Amino acid sequence: MEFRIAADELKRALYRAQGIVERKTTMPILSNVLITATKTAVQVTAFDLDVGVVSEHFAEVTKQGSITVSARTLFDIVQNVPEQQLTIRKLPNHYAEILSGTAHFKIVGMSPDEYPKLPREDDAPSVTVSGEVLLEMIRKTSFAISSDETRYILNGVFFEPHPTEKVRMVATDGHRLALVERSMPGDFKLKGGVIIPRKGLLELKRLLEEAPDAECHLGFAMNSALFKKKGLTMVMRLIDGQFPEYQRVIPKEGDRKVQLNRVRFLEALRRTALLSVDKSNAVKLTLTENQLRLTSQNPDLGEAKDDLDVAFNGAEITIGFNARYLSDVLSSLDDDEVVLELGDEHSPGVLHAPGDRSYTAVVMPMRV
Amino acid sequence: MDSPRAILHLDMDAFYASVEQRDDPALRGRPVIVGGHPKRGVVLAASYQVRPFGVRSAMPMARALRLAPDAVVVPPRFTAYAEASEQVFAIFERYTPLVEPLSLDEAFLDVSGSRSLFGLPGALASRIRAEVAREVGLPCSAGIAAVKFVAKVASDLAKPDGQREVPVAETQAFLAPLPVARLWGVGPKLEATLFALGLRTVGDVARASPEFLFEQLGDMGRHLAALARGEDDRPVVPDRQAKSIGAEDTFAEDTASPEVLQRALHAQALRVGRRLRRAGLRARTVQLKVKLSDFTLFTRRRTLESATDDGQRLYREAVKLLVRLRLSSAVRLTGVSAQELVGDRSQLGLFAEPEARTDRLNAALDAIAARYGQGAVTPADVASLEADTEEDEARRRVGGARFDVPPDR
Predict the structure, then answer these.
(1) Per-residue pLDDT tens digits for B99-149
(2) Same domain flag for B222 and B349
(3) Which of A249, A279, A344, A350 is most worth mutating to test chain B (most B CB atoms within 10 A of its CB)?
(4) How close A178 gets to chain B, by Cα (Å)?
(5) How many other C-beta atoms lie within 10 A of the C-beta of residue B377?
(6) Hey, are the CB atoms on B305 and A364 less than 8 Å from each other?
(7) Based on the domain organization, do B252 and B319 belong to the same domain?
(8) Which has the higher per-residue pLDDT, A111 or B279?
(9) Burial of A42 (C-beta count, 10 Å sphere; 0-12/13-18/19+)
């Protein structure tokens, strides 16, 4: 195998690979990339058995074939080569040689036959989707994914197509939940929904951010999701299990409803949380006539208070929240105003844009 | 510099034996050994009347009975000890929240902040000991010092039924004549190494140059040099701040019986559950500890789906771990500990908590125990453990109370 390629082109592929390959693994080959030279192009594959990305890059191929070498080492080399072009050549015993200007590297590789095979889902039914919509949906839900590995069902986002050409994405960690519904016409041929794991989703987010307006295809087959855009294919193993019945925990309409300036609310929460106990981020919200008061206290530090004007004349309430759960939602909303709905002090708070529940977040209170 | 801390080390005297003497007047003033089978068992506790004969805990029963043939042997009643222990700890907690349990019968108390409320640490120690004697009917000893290590040595030297205070200025003089084995971390092997270096007393270590100790013993040398000078900055860590909460017991005699092992784990798991609930904590991980007759130690851990403070659940997990060990030889000690503790119970959950029923059950059991004592409601297997030993006890103490047992004294 031998080919000549632009350093920047290869660097882009290897940068993507860094997020996928495993650094601490019992299977050393999983920290490698697979590089395959075909007649006119070079394919770079990174795969950790759960998430895999294959990208195609233009190159002058003089001899076809493949190698697999450490993703990290190759990335470091490519970042430091003296010329804009470099040549990679396969040597005996799985060594690879990298040449650029005066520089010469010879690095250890492994047999490409040992590189794990990605699931082939070429015939999976796929739907053309807007990268921008998909990106927005990921941004509005991924913060609520549980990082508790023992609750693996919640370690991803529930992706649920609806017959009305809409798709819902829902994430929850058991304390808060984020739901977004957007138009995504097409038939995914799914019965119910699937759970897309956090790591794959965050990689997908990175890929979408590179070029949000590019045409994308998303499909599902067996227990994998398949994402394609020009020159790039991504597969993700889905989380196998039953997502909780999230509809049950979304309250209808709260007894108390206030509209707030989103940024002012966000800033007041951040300020007040500075003096909450330890890392609990506990902030008390007291809603009285035309006023929302935020307070926190810490026996070792002191106390904080901030007031926001609101239009309210219902029954008073004092309720505690983890400020981060609220600010995560406020940061991912785009509107200037936000509606906060409350029931009693043990019922969840609900946040959404005024008159629009297509993006709804539910946050359980804290005992205060 | 900060004002010195005030640390109490409180240690019950011959705990199991004292509980037996308290509950049976016929045993008072007599040489009592709490332990297992005269041939196969070990000594769990020896009353002060039997100690002059050289009997010590952990000694094989056979040897103990050769040393003290007239000693009265009493089988253990773990529930009674656990109950006495809870009462004693409740007294400790009247004076400071900073109580670090070391075992059923031993704790460190940081009373630095209690001085303005309860007076000088020495007076406080007397008060606590008097309350333990009056309310629980058991003797204990106290060591009072600015650091943990010195407090522990002091309580040891004050025994039985005494207390000893070591003011900061006298710490070095107090420690100097003690043998090096008194230093925390010095076992037989390290002791031999220290002897070879010409260091026999704590004073020798204190006088040696820290550089020399570091050169010879590495970090351990640095640690010993600090201890020998009376420096020990370990804080008193109460359960609610602890990294783990555990309970373990040595069997009166080694056993391979699955029923006996499981009963012991059950009692231990329930104890751990109670301590978790009292500290407002839940555990994510359960650890089983098993020590075999030959002192081989096994520990096995398991992470739970969700954190728990339910002793029954800890027990079920511990038994699974035990079964998987496939033990074939006899066991000397078992223990259950709760790890990866999480304290934040203030955040409410979105989905129904599956443990709500057991939470309510445990709250009810805790309330009953608080009012009527730990023995008021006991799981049947743990209770049968007690019933067995009580039967044994009846046989041995009263002799002939049952028609099939001939009187033995």
Answers:
(1) 999 888 999 999 988 887 888 999 999 999 999 999 999 999 999 999 999
(2) no
(3) A249
(4) 12
(5) 12
(6) no
(7) yes
(8) A111
(9) buried
Chain A residues lying within 8 Å of B351, measured CB to CB: 174, 244, 249
pLDDT per position as a tens digit, B89-108? 999 988 888 899 988 899 99
Answer whether B350 sits within 8 Å of A151, measured CB to CB: no
ipTM of this predicted complex?
Answer: 0.78
Least CB–CB distance from B349: residue in A174, A280, A368: A174
With respect to residue B233, please indicate whether it lies within any of the assigned structural domains. no
**Candidate list B106, B165, B248, B253, residue with the active-site label:** B106
Domain closes at, from B135, B151, B166:
B166
CA pair distance A74, A84, nearest whole angstrom: 15
- Could you tell me which residues of chain B have a Cβ less than 8 Å from any Cβ in chain A? 284, 303-306, 344-351
B203 and B264 both lie in a single domain = no
| Closest residue of chain B to A281, computed from CA coordinates | B347
B106 catalytically annotated? yes
One domain, residues B157 and B303:
no
First to last CA, chain B: 64
Of residues A175, A320, A368, nearest to B350 (C-beta): A175
Under an 8 A CB cutoff, do A362 and B348 touch?
no
Residue A232's pLDDT band, with cuts at 50, 70 and 90, is: very high
Across the interface, whether the CB atoms of A346 and B347 are under 8 A apart is answered: no
Distance in angstroms (rounded) separating the CA atoms of residues B283 and B313: 11
A134 within 8 A of A208, measured Cβ to Cβ: yes
**B159 and B178 inside one domain:** no
The answer to whether residues B206 and B129 belong to one domain is no
> What CATH number corresponds to the domain at position B25?
3.30.70.270
Residue B301: both structure tokens together: 């851990």
Q: Is the domain of B11 the same as that of B115?
A: yes
| B112 found inside a domain | yes
User: Cβ–Cβ of B350/A364 closer than 8 Å?
Assistant: yes
Question: Has residue B409 been placed in a domain?
Answer: no
| pTM greater than the 0.90 cutoff | no
Cα dist. A256→A253, A289, B177 in Å? 9, 11, 73
Contact B348 A366 (CB under 8 A): yes
Q: Which helix (H) or strand (E) holds A207?
A: helix A198-210
Longest CA–CA separation in chain B, Å: 71
pLDDT in tens, B278-331: 888 889 899 999 999 888 899 999 988 778 889 999 999 999 999 998 888 899
- Structural domain span for residue B390: 244-397
Chain B contacts of A322, Cβ < 8 Å? 347
Counting the structural domains of chain B, the total is 3
3-state DSSP assignment of residue B41: strand
| Domain shared by B93 and B13, yes or no | yes
Question: Cα distance from B297 to chain A (closest Cα, Å)?
Answer: 28
